[in-house]
Amino acid sequence: MFSFLIRRVLQAGLVLLIVGFVAFSMFNFVGDPIDNMLGTERTQADIDRLRTQLGLDQPFVVQYWKFLANAVEGNLGVSYRQGRPVAEIIAERAPATLELATVSALFAVGVGVLLGIYTAIRRDGLVSHIIMSVSLIGVSLPTFLIGILLIYLFSVELDWLPSFGRGEVTDLGGWTTGFLTTSGLKALILPGITLGLFQMTLIMRLVRSEMLEVLRQDYIRFARARGLSEKAINFRHALKNTLVPVITVTGLQLGSIIAFAIITETVFQWPGVGLLFINAVQFVDIPVMAAYLMLISVMFVAINLIVDILYVAIDPRLRS
Amino acid sequence: MSELQNTLSFGNRLKRTWNSDLCWRFRHSPVAIISFAVTLLLVLSAVFAPIVAPYNPFDPGSLNLMNGFTPPSTPNAFTGDQFLLGTDDQGRDILSTILYGMRISLFVGFAAVSLGMFIGVTLGLIAGYFGGIIDAIIMRIADIQLTFPSILVALLIFGVAKGFTPVEYRDEVALWVLIIAIGLSDWVQFARVVRGATLVEKNKEYVQAARLIGRSSGSIIFGHILRNVMSPVLVIATISLALAIIAEATLSFLGVGVPPTQPSLGTLIRIGQGFLFSGEWWILLFPAVTLLSLALAVNLMGDWLRDALNPKLK
Amino acid sequence: MRKTLAATAVALLSVQAASAETFRWAGTTDPQTMDPHAVNSAPVLGFLNNVYEGLMRRNQQMQIEPALATGWEPIGTEGWRFHLRKDVKFHDGSDFTAEDVVFSYERATRPESDVSSWFASVSGIKAVDDYTVEFYTAAPNPIFPDTITNFMIMDKGWTEANSSAVPAKDAENFATRNTNGTGAFKVVERQPDLKTVVEPFGGWWDEATHNITSAEYTPIQNPATAVAALLSGEVDMINPVPTQDVARLSNSPDVKVLEDIEARVIMFGFANQADTLKYSADAGKPNPFKDARVRQAVNHAINVDAIVQTIMRGSAQPVSQLVSPAMRGYSESLAERPAYDLDKARALLAEAGYADGFSFGMKCPNNRYINDEAVCQAAVGMLAQIGLDVELETMPVSNYWPELRAQNFDMYMLGWSPGSFDAEHPIRFLVTTPNPEKKLGSWNFGAFSNDRVDELLPQIQSEIDDDKRQALLDESTKILQDEAGYVPMYVQALLWGARSNVDLTQRADNFFMLRWVTVN
């Protein structure tokens, strides 16, 4: 088990190195950073000075190493567009995205697992069929369309929930949170649902199919034959064995939630890193794009690692 | 994960039942028939858009601005012209624009899936057949990419390509960048499934026999194994198509897709969104319903196909 | 732990207390900078007029009244003398003196400044004493005070101490995100693209007539989202209201729409001097727009009435020149727009040797003017009818100005609102041959050039007799119309939306002044 973990950690490190390389290449080969940082009225002296300052006159490997070292220290360059450190901008925006992602993930996992169990146990019930059909529509509806429809219904027609932004946020020493005010909590509902819906349907369908699979197994039949109650069978035995694949997929989906936040944030004008990224793509603001890429990959690698560890912890067969 | 593995373990039995069983199932599934019919209808009307559509909305010279905002099937107040599904802000016939826009959506979808399939199947076959270090490298790359959702990969490729392309060519290459972006973000699924299926196939007797009589690796891979791993590929391709269509719409909605003068379904929805509050609901509704029908029909087909090829999952 | 909880509770209380009275307003773009000399565009100047002040300011009717200067008079024909207000403090508490005016003048006239054209006629400046400043002009300039109302004064000590003596146009320095003005409001929080929060400045020299305790500006990129936010009361004011949503908002009892004609003329400009086309299939071929007949053809092919009627839903006014009829110096005799006449347009093209048309690239912003992208798309359709194949590229305004400055266009869209409310203004900025040394033509991106107009400008600037001045302006307008250096299309509407309980003043320059806001 130990060697397994070591291997995974090494792999994770390798992934980060590669992603760092991609980010670094973007930085250096897409557009000319000098061109982007100096205006039209520049002199050769300006160019040379900046080139030395940025270390662009040094060998490639040295540049790459410096880039990585800087990134580890949290120095991610300066945004072409806003002209201030990328790390600072991202730190400002990250709480918004993380809070939104948390809410959507809770929604997706909570509702997804519940509906999945329900549709598996009552697989032939009318409600189950309806849930399954609606879920397919949910998968076929692009996120942005769901967002627009929710805004139209709940903000404009019914006037229940806010249509954009985070509402009132409280600053807790650099971390802005919307969890502490009514308007902040209300602002989280629509984007949270929009972002979580797709993942929710995925988890629901997965739980359902895994559960059905498990319920067909021999030991469940034996349990039934032994006269255990349906409740005990469903929850103590079946659900427990469904969890392994569910945790894997859920873990991976958490990463997706953060990435898919790009769309939700655009629709709801949510001031997170996703909105920052989409603006950066439009403006070809490479430092922001590169930093976002690295940030997301660190997050994904961490999530994957945790999932792997959980996997081992839950499934004893993998421990050998 | 487990769904995929289930699909491929079934690959072998499938080749014998493909002709009779699948068709029988199709004939007896109303969902399959309807979704197939809807897909076919939409694809055909898109392909033949220049013949079917009443106007050519991509020809700016044919537009009359005074026809702007004409409600569905109501004569325009100034020109008296009438349009079945109304017009948008530029006086473009919505029906024609949907048909032409769907052409772009479908073209991007098919091309991107083909690209993803080509790369994925090739790499999957190679990885599965040769194993060892090649396998390890390919699958690690796949693992890495799998951790990034396709929309993010597509956006990154798009952003990088935008930085590379001289401004004067951006319009021309936008469509191809879109295809490459979606296609490249899509190959991993294929590679994983094909690799798994190949691992199973390669130890089968017919492959061993072929090896014994001295067939080259290439001819074994593409002559024998490929044919036998095609059914799970088909399932993935169908579901990928739905995802690719949605991805294209999403990118266009985000404003990084096709140019505004050649709207795809996503662009139309973006435009229509601006008129949601002002009563011009048709600009948003019809493209949205079309997109939903298309994605839903393809998804249902994919779902059905998977179940039909693997009844255990039902 | 208990401490944190208590702190949180306090934070909660204070937040709620503040939120009760925070006035919120929204627009489509964020002011790119907080530096009053770095970008000469309405979103920036309009916002900063709440924070910084000029020597004089405009009242609700756009008339000039004293601000940092209490009075001014011409020094014969040599220039203007300004008497400065005493006991004025900057937000950081330092005193306002003549030194700050001289410093701000020097800063605003640097090559890095975007507003140096305001001082094209100025040859020098002198601080006579702490509260008297004299501007010297090369020729008599009777309207000089009118032209510098947006010239905002920065504190010399603060700016230099923060090494921001040079305005940063496309990059950033301390003054890009921090402010230290004398105005009624001070910036307390600035998060680019997210929000900017201002609070009343307690030490303001004038008496406050508003009842705002805190105000927050949020850029909302999507106009539909802004409308939804106004309807649900999340914001108290939006600018602009999308033309299509005017009817709906007017029908709602909770909100009102304020509509007027803005001073802004929307026009197309051309690469008048470039030798070759830069975009599309014909890139590299000789530039047809050098020929006035081709530009004329474009002018005849654009159906402005149709644009106004459909895209603008009636809330715009066709215009024949670079200023609206409400401006001083408008040429009444030249009020007629060239007729929408496709045959004439085609004939002009044929005459110029382009009977089969050609293709080129057009640049447009997509979040700067009302329905800018839709108007450009419509123009593409209209030009297609005379055989011109247009490749349209639209982009957000923060990308747009750099593209224009780099002359990356064959044809482009521009909106112009004369800060001085005088027809001389666009001639100085848009029509005279660009000349950085003389600070002329700084927004003349297509480099339109006409010797006679260049001669006329100084005459217009120094002419005191109204009739003679008008004759000079008419001559310049006529030349520009004949040459079709620009294609002016319409005067944009001013469309603001506000909650019913908000009283505010809609000024014709589209500046939203917080000091006239009352929330009931």
Give a nutshell description of this structure:
The complex is a heterotrimer of chains A (320), B (314) and C (520). Chain B is an all-alpha fold and 314 residues long. Chain B has helices at residues 2-9, 11-27, 30-47, 49-52, 94-130, 132-146, 150-164, 170-184, 187-202, 205-212, 217-253, 265-273, 282-309.
How do the strands and helices of this protein lay out in sequence?
The complex is a heterotrimer of chains A (320), B (314) and C (520).
Chain A (H helix, E strand, L loop, with lengths): L1 H28 L3 H5 L6 H11 L5 H13 L13 H36 L4 H15 L2 H15 L12 E3 L2 E3 L4 H34 L2 H8 L4 H39 L4 H11 L2 H29 L6
Helix pairs in contact in A: 1-12, 5-6, 5-8, 5-10, 6-8, 7-8, 7-10, 8-10, 10-11, 10-12, 11-12
Chain B lengths: L1 H8 L1 H17 L2 H18 L1 H4 L41 H37 L1 H15 L3 H15 L5 H15 L2 H16 L2 H8 L4 H37 L11 H9 L8 H28 L5
Helix pairs in contact in B: 1-9, 2-11, 3-5, 3-13, 5-6, 5-8, 5-9, 5-11, 5-13, 6-9, 7-8, 9-11, 11-12, 11-13, 12-13
Chain C lengths: L1 H20 E6 L14 H7 L7 E3 L5 E3 L2 E7 L3 E6 L13 H11 L13 E8 L2 E6 L6 H4 L8 H6 L12 H4 L7 E7 L3 E6 L13 E6 L3 H9 L5 E3 L6 H6 L3 E16 L21 H10 L2 H6 L6 E3 L23 H10 L6 E8 L6 H13 L3 E8 L1 H9 L5 E6 L7 H8 L19 H12 L3 H18 L2 E14 L2 E2 L14 E2 L1
Parallel strand pairs in C: 1-10, 1-11, 14-15, 14-16
Antiparallel strand pairs in C: 2-3, 4-5, 5-7, 6-7, 8-9, 9-10, 11-17, 12-16, 12-17, 13-17, 18-19
Subcellular location (chain A): Cell membrane
Family (chain A): Belongs to the binding-protein-dependent transport system permease family.
Pfam families (chain A): BPD_transp_1, BPD_transp_1_N
Structure description:
The complex is a heterotrimer of chains A (320), B (314) and C (520). Chain A is mostly helical and 320 residues long. Chain A has twelve helices and two strands. Chain A has helices spanning 2-29, 33-37, 44-54, 60-72, 86-121, 126-140, 143-157, 182-215, 218-225, 230-268, 273-283, 286-314; strands at residues 170-172, 175-177. Chain A has a two-stranded antiparallel sheet with strand order 1-2. Chain A is globular and about 85 Å long. Chain B has one domain (2-56, 80-313): MetI-like fold. Helix content of chain B is 72%, strand content 0%. In chain B, 54% of the residues are buried. In chain C, strands 1, 8, 9, 10, 11, 12, 13, 14, 15, 16 and 17 form an eleven-stranded mixed sheet that branches. Mean pLDDT of chain C is 88; it is low at 1-20. In chain C, helix 9 (292-301) packs antiparallel against helix 11. Chain C has 520 residues and is α+β, with helices and mostly antiparallel strands. Chain C has two domains: 33-196, Dipeptide-binding Protein, Domain 1 (Dipeptide-binding Protein, domain 1); 262-493, Dipeptide-binding Protein, Domain 3 (Dipeptide-binding Protein, domain 3). The two termini of chain C are 41 Å apart. Chain C has helices spanning 2-21, 42-48, 98-108, 144-147, 156-161, 174-177, 223-231, 246-251, 292-301, 304-309, 342-351, 372-384, 397-405, 424-431, 451-462, 466-483; strands at residues 22-27, 56-58, 64-66, 69-75, 79-84, 122-129, 132-137, 185-191, 195-200, 214-219, 237-239, 255-270, 316-318, 358-365, 388-395, 411-416, 486-499, 502-503, 518-519.
